[in-house]
Amino acid sequence: MRLALIANAFKRLGVQGFGKSVCQQRSPYDGSRAVFPLFLKTFSSAEEGSVENTGEPVTESRIEKLPKGLFWKVFDRTKEPTKSALDKWLNDGKKLKERDLQSLVRGFRNSHNYKKALEVSQWMQNHPKFVFTPGDYCIMLDLIERVYGIDRAEKCFQDLPEISKNEITYCALLDCYAKAGLTEKAEHWMEKMQELGFTTTVRPYNTLMKCYLVSDQMEKILSTIKHLKKIDVQLNSFSYRLWINACASMSKIDDAEKIVDEIKSTNDSVDWTVYTAVGDMYIKSGLPDKAKSALKEAEKKIGKGDRRAYDYLITMNASLDDKEEVYRLWNILKTSFDKLYNTDYISVLSSLAKSGDIEGVEKIFKEWETSCSSYDFRVSNILLAAYVRGGMLEKAESFHSRIAKERGEPICKTWEILAQGYLNSKQMDKAVTTMLNALRRVRSSGWKPRSENVIGILKYLEEQGNVEIADEVLKLLRDIPYVTTEIYNLLLSTHAKAGKDADEIFEQMVIDKVSTDKETDRLRKVINDNKPSG
């Protein structure tokens, strides 16, 4: 229940990492060939109140300035651990600055590879050559919470040098509580921060309100806003977004519109994200004309060099099925920047694919393919998925073959998209083979398959009584790891129908801490009854 609340809350804020992104993928780290382009995403418009803003934003130009070969040296952990890779880098006499390590940490973190980011962060902390700042501790706290949980994050904070226990790091731990929806702990920590004089700005209040959003306590957001006005603390763009989202969640459209009126009369310095929050509210309320008007206001607020705003407006106009506006914004984006990044193409291609404009997707994909400096399978996956969704499986197969021949081994998601096409067309043997290709290539990518695809091939293997392939699928899923009660039950049913023993599978369920249900108990009885007596 809490996870669902968290996901919904972060979707309202437009925070990446929860729900589907514009490229419709669970994890950006989906195979080594696609990693570097994704790593170069721009994160200059992170939400206020989170540890995203504890230091200089990681831009694509900054990442591109990393010492040549450093990224691949650190990322490819199949060759050597992160610590050994970085030690060897220095021992070979190569240059390495705090700035380079911070870029690596933030890049891996923003790309959802939290474990790798934490490994780099901890190496930097423990190395005498480098200075570990309070901002670095903030990022590390966040990473520890994501990788090991809140208890370890709290222990990390307790172990910080006293000089580093300041407003920044206190707010970082508050942010950990907020992301987890731990309201009582967040409120207690906020009281402690107030006692220390760490609540003189709006930032910690924003973080606390984010916690209320995650835990679906909208009334508390409204009371916090009221308190901020009482103590004369200036609201910022993120505060207004939280306030608007709270009103929208409570179906108080009129109140949200009054907030916009207040902004226009007293605080017109807010950024474009406030008006996209208003636009999102109107879209979900079935008010397309008002949504379009809000998005026009958002466009007026776009600052120089903020390409992320155009990407976001493109995807929102696609939600309104306004293809003409998508093309208009795309043309503005192309003329406003000397260089377009893969993420820009992902936004427009996903938007056109959503509207069913396959010809438009093909045309812009061709533009990208002839000009891209680094090939990103996430971009080609959008066209592949468009073919699959459009029932053009032969075209999808031909396109997949060409890309594999010209660009090398496709990433996991590419294979899964094709497998989904075979599932849709009931070509089950091809679906199983293609899905196995995806699962066998996971390695350390962080990719996880779609549940419906896994269930689809396992049900087919169950019908066929194919224990050998079903067992291989389970082994590969456990390596990811991605196992559920339903997956295990399908494996047990396959063994039961084939009259095979399943003791090892039951043992694996215990090891994987997967709960059993009535169906598991029924299958256990069937399998035990089928065992030869004596």
What this model shows, in words?
With 534 residues, the chain is mostly helical. Among the domains are: 25-215, Serine Threonine Protein Phosphatase 5, Tetratricopeptide repeat (Alpha Horseshoe); 424-534. The protein has 30 helices and no strands. The protein has helices at 2-13, 32-39, 60-64, 70-75, 82-91, 98-110, 114-126, 134-148, 150-158, 167-180, 183-195, 203-214, 218-230, 237-249, 253-266, 272-284, 288-300, 307-319, 323-336, 342-354, 358-371, 377-389, 393-407, 412-424, 428-439, 451-464, 467-479, 485-498, 503-511, 518-530. Residues 14-49 and 51-63 have low confidence and may be disordered.
Query: Count of helical segments?
Result: 30
Classification by helices and strands: mainly alpha
Low-confidence spans: pLDDT under 50, at least 5 residues? 14-49, 51-63
Rounded to an integer in angstroms, the radius of gyration calculated over CA atoms is 25 Å
The percent of residues in helical segments reads 55-70%
Q: What's the pLDDT, averaged over the residues?
A: 86
* Strand composition percent: under 5%
Please give the CATH architecture of the domain at 25-215.
Alpha Horseshoe
Main β-sheet description:
none
